[in-house]
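Late entry, written up from scratch paper. The run itself happened at the end of the previous shift, but nothing got recorded in the book at the time, so transcribing now.
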Amino acid sequence: MNTLASIVAAIDFSEQARSAAERAALIAQEQRATLRLLHVVSSSSLDDLRNLVRGSAAVEESVLDEAHATLREAADALRNKTGVTAQKEVVTGQVIAVIRAAAEEADLLVLGARGTNPLRDLVLGTTAERLLRICRRPALVVKRAPEGAYGRVIVPVDFSSYSAPALAMAGLVAPHARISILHAFRVPFEARLRIAGATDDAIRRYCDEQRQDAVERLDRLITECLPRAQRAACIVEQGDPSPVILAQAQTQAADLIVIGKQGQSRAEELLLGSVTRHVLTGSTCDVLVVSP
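Output as recorded:
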């Protein structure tokens, strides 16, 4: 994918969703992409409403009219703020299925993280978490109100099949940002190695070799995935990936983390990878989750 031609922003009229729509508009403006604002009225909720008011069509029509009006207001506010004219669509159906189908036709799905602790909601299995698990398109979870284009981006890589697509997507979504490509490694069975008599010098040599190998592989990734003009830096640290990623995001005041949907374990085929999930849970900046 060399450009982002179409973006879908799922909006439920919450503050987080409105921030997501604004971020989607900024990306659409920069990419000259079409933007579609999608609001889904839950069919099951409408069924409950029908049962509650004994099949009154007037109440159902009122709910849909209000959704259309609110979406028009949101689109007008977005156009006034960003200059982007968005397509508007209100659909009745199963929320997850409708958004997933719309995402499959787009290059990027944008949605808000809900709640005062966004990823507490994700851990409990909200719409956002469920979509991230099943969506095959890049999905951007917006946690902050935008303050302009992304400027500081971290891309964690583990050299799995998710690494190159994540780095390439970072270059698309944040073409003018400084990108830090981060690899975290661990010494396997370090405690047992020490018990078995491995010296500090031997472990240090192993770490030095791992760092050098990682730097060379990161350089190749940059050459393959980013344009020459893109600013990028390589960071290799020893430690567990999740805390290393979160610490770097905080140190660099990153406004975006771009990460693969899952790592090397095929057992997580229908799940978010553990590192991805921990980063979503612990980060305070936006997170873009990419599938290969």
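The domain at 149-292 is CATH 3.40.50.620 (Rossmann fold).
(Scratch paper discarded after transcription.)
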